[in-house]
Write a structure and sequence with these properties.
Structural class: alpha+beta
CATH architecture: Roll
Radius of gyration: 11 Å
Number of domains: 1
Distance between the termini: 26 Å
Order of helices and strands: EEEEEHH
Largest sheet: 5 strands, antiparallel
CATH topology: SH3 type barrels
């Protein structure tokens, strides 16, 4: 599965293990920037290797649209998108 902007991912290891994030930027075929609006803010996303992430099939259409049009995604929008997907951390 290829990574897409606005795609839901979860961390396989590290102190953020099991936490859910959205892909905010794809840097290369191996690296992405992720944020959840709480642990990792949208202004300072975490750079992570794709092999350290579980790619989930869910993609938030609103987040994806904003990222594709180069609009700023806020922490609140990321948190609301997680809630829409039924993720409450």
């Amino acid at each position: 599965m290829l990574a897409r902007l606005g795609q839901l991912v979860s961390s396989k290891a590290g102190r953020d293990q099991g936490k859910y994030f959205f892909i905010l930027e794809i840097r290369s075929e191996n690296w992405v920037l992720i944020a959840d609006g709480k642990l990792r803010r949208a202004e300072k996303p975490k750079m992570k290797k794709l092999r350290h992430l579980v790619l989930h099939p869910q993609i938030d259409a609103e987040i994806e649209k904003k990222l594709l049009t180069k609009e700023t995604v806020t922490d609140r929008e990321l948190q609301q998108a997680l809630l829409r997907m039924g993720i409450t951390e």
